[in-house]
Amino acid sequence: GCSNGKAKEKGEPEADTSVPVEVQPLRRAEMVAVYSGTAPIEAHEEATVVAKVGGEVRQIHVEEGDTVQAGQVLARLDGDRLRLTLAQTDANLRKLERDYKRTLELADKGLVPKSTAENTKYDLDALRAGYDSARLELSYTEIRAPINGVISARKIKVGNTIGPNEPTFTVTDLDPLLAFVHVPEKEFRKIAPGQNAEVVIDALGGTRFAGTISRISPTVDPQTGTFRARVEVPDATRTLKPGMFARVNIVYERRQDALQLPRTAILDADGQQSVFVVASGKAEQRTIRTGLSNGGWIEVLEGLKGSEQVVTVGQAGLKTGTLVKIVGDGAPPAAAAVAAGQAKAK
């Protein structure tokens, strides 16, 4: 018979029409859903200690970096004038107490009107209040810490004469430190008190600290559309410093033994997600439903069993039934050897 085409010579290999692809197996591992935000590190509490009375600074008992307890004496003022005032008030009080006692005895005998004794009693009460006030003013010459914490600033020196309400120290409570993360309102139902958070500090070379969400704001800011989550970060080593910039990762859901596939394998068309798997040397498209995502991996809820190899590179031009050739790290040894032999024959 006649033939219009050129006959293939015996032994000539057929042209390879398979599409080269790279594949990767699915995995099962814990899947963690994370919301990431940024926030500066802040102190739990901070108080500026002011002088309640004026005077000359005679003694300073603490320096920056010292740990103090609430009520501890930080510095002392001279208080000479206040001591004299207290002594004078005490002398007047003792004299009036004696006069009142004598007037009361005379009133009982009818020698003076009872109203005189009552007026003396009022004067005595007023003078006692003045004595208590003078003693309180004298106690204010001892400048005390209002809260537990660390001295973060000392603003006075021995010999300075200061007035009332003048700042003297700053006390900062560093246990725990806080990070206030502003979260979009669409995440409101995902974030809750008690959830774990990871705090990453770039200034410390990416050092990570464990934190916990302690409070959630009950309102949403209408201007920014965010709500505030307070993250507590314990740091017994005092490595963290208020003012440092932090990246905060809030873990809002965990799933054990979740089936996962690489994000690069997913095709998204008209809101429907799918992947290509390799079965008997051919591509097969599978529609899937995904769940949580973390980094480069996405949870598969429906569409795959877990034993498949999904195409991660080269799937854009595939159709179901297309012959494929696995290359790269996912290629089995036999397939790699055949590909090498074909290349050598050419």
Q: Describe it for me?
A:
This protein is of the alpha+beta class and 346 residues long. 20% of the residues lie in helices and 43% in strands. The protein has helices spanning 80-108, 114-139, 333-345, and strands at 19-25, 27-42, 45-50, 55-60, 67-68, 73-77, 142-144, 149-154, 161-162, 167-173, 177-184, 196-201, 207-216, 226-233, 245-262, 267-269, 272-279, 282-294, 297-302, 309-313, 324-326. The strands form four sheets. The chain has a six-stranded antiparallel beta barrel with strand order 2-11-14-13-12-15. The chain has a four-stranded antiparallel β-sheet with strand order 3-10-8-5, with no helix packed on it. It starts with 18 loop residues before the first strand and ends with a helix. The model is unreliable at 333-346 (pLDDT under 50).
Question: Low-confidence spans: pLDDT under 50, at least 5 residues?
Answer: 333-346
Q: How large is the radius of gyration?
A: 40 Å
**What is the 3D form?**
elongated
Report the sheet with the most strands, covering strand number, pairing sense and barrel closure. Answer: 6 strands, antiparallel, barrel
Mean pLDDT: 86
Distance between the termini: 31 Å
User: What is the number of helices?
Assistant: 3
Judged by helices, strands and strand pairing, the structural class is alpha+beta
**Strand arrangement in the largest pleated sheet:** 2-11-14-13-12-15
Q: What portion of residues is helical?
A: 10-25%
What is the total tally of β strands? Answer: 21
| Proportion of residues in extended strands | 35-45%
What's the helix-strand series? EEEEEEHHEEEEEEEEEEEEEEEH
